[in-house]
Amino acid sequence: MVYEGGGVPLVSLIISNYNGIKYVKKCLESCLNMSYPNYEIIFVDDCSTDGSFEFVKEFLGSNSRVKIIKNEENMGYVNVNNIGFKHANGDYIVFLNNDTEVSPLWLNEIVKVMEADPTIGAAQPKILNMRNRKRIDSLGAFTDPLGYVYPNLVSHEVREVLFAVGTAIIVRRSAIKEALLGGLPYDPDYVNYYEDFDLCWRIRLAGHRIVCVPTSVIYHDTRMRSRYDSTPFWTFHITKNQIMNMLKNYSLTNMLRYVPLLLILESAKAFIFFRSRPRHNISVLKAILWIFRNLRSIWKKRLMINRSIRKVNDSAITQLMENCNFIYLYRMFKQAISKG
Q1: Is there a single domain that holds both residue 81 and residue 188?
Q2: Is the CA virtual torsion 210, 213, 218, 222 positive or negative?
Q3: Which of 127, 225, 250, 276 would you label with 96, given CA atoms 20 to 30 Å apart?
Q4: Phi/psi at 150 (5° precision)
Q5: Nearest 5°: phi and psi at 128?
Q6: Do 21 and 93 reside in the same domain of the chain?
């Protein structure tokens, strides 16, 4: 295994955990069985109550590669990863979910690609479903100009994607340092969802590329994620974070072009489908209200991004966006009409 410059870069794997007793053993065992020779594991427990922290402490407490951190209070997924980042020493930083299993060569393959191309700031492996190992869970993602996400479906070669998904994302330290917001990789206001897109958007604004490396393979057990997806909590954070992404990261011209349209679209959707999903649509309206209440702090972050991070114009990002928002609008109103 030969890397540019002859050395083997140190990789820091940050694994966040909250009540993951069903998953952490498989995840950690697979990480310890990697063939990549130079890595550290930073395991951050978010005040778990299911015994998973105690299990990991007993399982790995004597391993010199592993740092185990326990939060005294539940701080949420985004903050857990930020805490892990502060303890990371690697040339590359991996944010890895606890419900994953990595293949032995996954890190070799993805680091090899990134070492060969210094323009790559972040990457993700091919993520397959844990229970059906032929089914693709993620190859990275694209969005339309309004921020609605569409999956990458190409799997046979290294391909540029708009953003890498947070299940497993590797970032070059030099690139993430250029994209830090208030000294942190993830914006704490996101709590959960879209924080990966926001981080990747800033990495792109700093002038770096993001790719998927299909020869690097991990497996993801989506059962933990499904407990939260499609809940009012999910709806609230997806909506507010989607809007916040555009307010913070777009140029002024594109922000004025797309944010009002997104606000109109989400408000209309909430009112049209209110009777069929009242709790979700209340969450949409609460998210929009949250945006207006916190507009001053969002704007401060926007100014920080434009002054300290942005090195390229929006075309570097928008050229990777799909113009699908009008298809979404058409489907939404067609669905509304069919419901009478």
Answers
A1: yes
A2: positive
A3: 250
A4: -130, 135
A5: -105, 155
A6: yes
135/166 same-domain check: yes
- What was the pLDDT predicted at 120? 98
Rounded Cα distance, 229 and 98, in Å: 17
How many other CB atoms sit within 10 Å of the CB of residue 99?
21
Q: Are residues 324 and 243 in the same domain?
A: yes
Averaged pLDDT of the chain? 89
The rounded Cα 7 to chain-centroid distance in angstroms is 29
pLDDT digits (tens, 9 = 90+) for 9-48: 999 999 999 988 989 999 999 999 999 999 999 999 998 8
The domain boundary residue, chosen from 218, 248, 275: 218
Q: How many domains does the chain have?
A: 2
Do 236 and 209 lie in one domain? The reply is no
Q: Output the CA angle 174-43-222, nearest 5 degrees.
A: 95
Which residues are registered as beta bridge partners of 213?
Answer: 125
Domain identity same for 118 and 194: yes
- Predicted TM-score (pTM) of this structure: 0.90
221: helix, strand or coil: coil
What would the pLDDT profile of 91-136 be if each residue is shown by its tens digit?
999 999 999 999 999 999 999 999 999 999 999 999 998 888 888 8
Name the band, by pLDDT with cuts 50, 70 and 90, for residue 314.
very high
Q: Which domain holds residue 189?
A: 11-218
Looking at the domain assignment, is residue 227 inside a domain?
no
Q: List, in sequence order, the alpha helices (H) in 2-121.
A: 24-32, 52-60, 77-86, 106-116
Surface-to-core class of residue 110, CB atoms within 10 Å of its CB (0-12 exposed, 13-18 middle, 19+ buried) = buried
